[in-house]
Every structure is written in structure tokens, then in C-alpha cells.
Amino acid sequence: MFEVILGLEVHVQLNTNSKLFCSCATSFGEEPNTNVCPTCLGLPGALPVLNKEAVHKAIMLGTALKSQINKKSIFNRKNYFYPDLPNGYQISQFEVPVVGLGELTIDFEDGSSKTIGVTRAHLENDAGKNIHAGDVSHVDLNRAGTPLLEIVSEPDMRSSEEAILYLKKLHSIVRYLGISDANMQEGSFRCDVNVSIRPKGDEKLYTRCEIKNMNSFKFIEKAIKYEVNRQIEAWEDGVYEDEVFQETRLYDPDKDETRSMRGKEDAADYRYFPDPDLLPLVITDEMMEKYSQIPELPDEKKERFVNDYKIKEYDASVVTASVEMANFFDEMMKEEITGKNAVTWLTVELQGRLKETSIENSPITAKKLAEVVKNIENSTISGKAAKEVLDFLIENPEEEVEAVIEKLGLKQVSDDGALLSMIDEILAANEDKVAEYKSGKEKMFAFFVGQTMKASKGTANPQKVSQLLKERLS
Ligand SMILES: [Zn+2]
Asked: Looking at the domain 416-473, which fold is it?
């Protein structure tokens, strides 16, 4: 029996307006090599100047992860050659990162949770991009120098499930903080996974392989499963020493396998040394005070929703999974509706109708959806009618809820007088059935309710109808 050991390195591209060490724009999708200057092109004599906004965002994340913030951290040069790296080194942080030891708690579906250690988070600049076209390759340096925050976890995860929960939680925190768009397709949230195995009960760590540069939760999960199996099979076949070494591997989603890319470098290979062009990063008390202000995080929101809106833990975790959804829900609750109904109408009725569209692009506002729910709660319309109202609103988002109810003729009749005259007519027309009911055939009651609902074209309030029928028949 084997135990799986997983550690994650996540690269988050910070959404600052300009790059980490120069004032070039960080916008995505521009003409190649237009957002560049002597500094990010690595021209001789150009000097880096640290972007304060990136430091601010790093400290926000550190605060969210309850991390120790280092008052003084150092920028180092990490030396290697690659065509997309014009300086011949990356500016990163090595011994002393800006964000030190912290933690992140993951929640399992059964309600249990586990705390994963976060070793550090450090600032560094991104490389450019090599674009391969046929037998030539191009280099686009627009991305070179954009700020990254690399968040390194302890090897605390024991399954691909835990790794994905960790990543989703981190992704959500980053989005709540608003420090990155964390768009995975565009690579602003990407991840390297360190995978190793050991016989259960063994304390020592065995050789780890690093699967590099993945940006889809689905592929990360598959890559981990493949790699774990590969290592276990090698162990069981007695060829572990020959087949598992410290190396960098790439996951190929088409073949669903990981492949060796290159031997994994040790820190010594990079010849790290302090960048002589940059002063140590010193965080003053004022900076700390100002930068550690952060908005409400998913866990806090969840707790508040459970306490204030009286919804279930599980429902709370569904509506706080993304910051957009949580804000939408919060907005709905301003209309003073029942939490449970708000959850259903948001996550089942509205989301079911939006399909692929995400909640931030919903054609109808939180206020309008809440008004629909309110109209059910005060018996103005039935639940069934509310679905019609919602369908109509999605097609005609500029319409007002009250006007739609009026226009579609869905208002429930709760007025005693109107209902009683309907009921009396029905009872008079069905004297034989009334007699059957009175002689003990209680099933006939449902027939009278049905007839009344039909006569009202579904607009009668069913509770009211039952109540009045009982009075009339007793
Ligand atoms: Zn530049």
C-alpha cells in the first residue's frame, strides 16, 4: 500500500496595470512586442524599478493565508538561458520571500476539513512567449516582466482530490481579493505539481517528479493520477530506481500521459545571487497597515450566510464558491426574502436557465430575481407561475416584475369573495360528488380543489382554496 505525497507551486499573474520592474502595460492579446521597453527587453544599462502595486497585492494574499510577512525580503537573479528570457536571468526571490509561512484550509463534501501548509509566496517576473510556426519560432516579449506571485505549498496533500480542493480554494481567494483575474485559459493561474509516493507508514520522502505548467483543474487531476500510477507500477515492477528520477515532466492531455521534459535542476544550477540593481524590499509599518486591509473571504462569507440568512452549510459553500455568485446572493437577501428560497432560485432556477453563461453576465439583476421570490412568499403568485415570470424576464430583462405578473395574468386570487363564488358554483354543479364526500369518500376533496384551480385558470391560491372548501363542506 502506498501513500501519495503532493506539493503544489501555483503561479498567479497579478493584475497590476504595469509590469513588475518597468512601466510597460500588462494587457493581454496585444500585437507582439509592442508592450516592451529597454528594461523588459534586457537592454544594457536599463535599471529595474519595483512596482509598489505588486507588493501591495502580495501582502493582501499573505494576509488572507495568515502568513508571516517578512519585513525585509531580497530579490535574486535566477540564471538560465531561454530565448523568451531576454536578460538571461529571471528576477525572483530565493532565501527570503516577501510572504513566509501560512496556511489554507480545504473543506471536504462530508463536512470535514484539513489545513494545508503554505511554505511561501514570492514575487518574480514572467518570461515572454515562444511561438512555434512550422520550422521557424518567434519570440513575443509582451508578457516578459509581468508580475507573478508564486505560491508554494508544503507537501501536505495526499490525493488528487485534496490537490484540486486546494487549487480551487486558492483560486477563489485570489478572485475574492481581486489581485488577479486568475483566468486559467490565458495562463494567469497555472500550476506545477510535485508528485512522489512512499510505502504507507514510511516517514522519508522519496524522489519527486514535477509536472509543469498546467492550467485546467481537469487535466491537473488526470496528470496526478497518471503520474502516481506510473510511480507505483515502477515500484511494484522493481524498476523504481531506473524509472523514477528527479525530473520535470509534461502532461499530454491528448494521450493522457506525462512525459519526461528535462532533468530537474537543483537550486544550485541557477546560481542565485542578490540582484545588485535592486534594494532589499522593506515593508514599513505604514505599508503593512495599509496593504493588509482585505475584503471578506469565502470562509467568512460562508459563516455569515449561515448565521444571518439561516441557510445550510452546504448551500453556503455553493453560493460562496465564486465571488460573483456570493455578491449576487448577498444582493438578493437585501430584499428580505427567505435564505433557503434565495438559494434555490439562484442556484437551480436561474443558473439552470443560464446554462453556460456565468452569473456575472446574468440578464436579470439580483434585485429582480429576489422580487420574483418575494412574490411567491407573499402568495401573489404560485411557484409555477414564478417560473413563467423568470422565463419571460430572461427574454425581456428590461421589464419590471410586477408588470410581468400583471401582463401574464398570473396574480393568484386570494380574495375570499371571488374564491367562494367559484367554489359555490362548483359545489352546486356537482351535488352527487358532494354527497359522496359527505358519506365518507374523503378522496373527493382533491377533486374539488382541482376544479377550483381549473376554474381560476391556476391563479387561485391553493392553501386558501383548501381552507375555504373545508369550511363550505363541513
Ligand atoms: Zn518594459
From this structure: Arc Repressor Mutant, subunit A (1.10.10)
